[in-house]
């Protein structure tokens, strides 16, 4: 599989784009503002969107992505997520007020497909499995298994026993893309909003066998340098990398 980073920030401003990862030519993990930089032909080629959760920085461009296909593609755009996430997307985005209801029989341009933790879906020989995380709203990480190696994308999460247990049990885990939104001194924010800081990240990584390539994403805009310095100190043994827009990971 080939994963291209379209957006890897916790917010907007300047060159920041919010979370979106393109897998091969036909699939997106989350649909944040990074999607808007793709050329029209690449947008039309997207058939599947896997969502981590319904927060706007991860779904903001989903309505307009669906719109691109209207009149250009006959098959609906398939959106996979937890039932709670799909309900929020339908009720808050495709509700006929913010955007047309593209999930309705009259305009069947989007198919909402519920998934469950631990139950994989197969798409053209690629396996995608939602994993449990702990965030302010129902959320999932996604494991991508190419057959020879796995990559896990955390979505948004604070420290979660269940999540790190799942990671530790993946025999072919090669890449981990994980959020580190806040500074270490913002423990209250981590707990209240379900995000990670360097200290919490280090606690989880200690559970993993090396070598796993750790890619840090979703840092709070304006505090990236300080957060990154804390990550380098707390997680030095893993030689973490900073996820950047434009990077490509193959596995
Ligand atoms: Zn979130
Ligand atoms: Zn987020």
UniProtKB/TrEMBL annotation:
- Has the keyword Chaperone been applied to this entry? no
Q: Where are the transmembrane segments?
A: none
Asked whether the UniProt record includes Transport among its keywords, one would answer no
GO molecular-function annotation terms?
3',5'-cyclic-nucleotide phosphodiesterase activity
Among SUPFAM superfamilies, the record links this protein to: Metallo-hydrolase/oxidoreductase (SSF56281)
Enumerate the spans annotated as Metallo-beta-lactamase domain: 15-218
Enzyme class per UniProt: hydrolase
Q: What keywords were assigned to this record? A: Hydrolase
User: What EC number(s) is this enzyme filed under?
Assistant: 3.1.4.17
Tell me which Pfam families the record gives: Lactamase_B_2 (PF12706)
Q: Which InterPro entries match?
A: MBL, Metallo-B-lactamas, Pdiesterase2, RibonucZ/Hydroxyglut_hydro
Q: What is this protein called?
A: 3',5'-cyclic-nucleotide phosphodiesterase
Q: Which organism is it from?
A: Thiobacter aerophilum
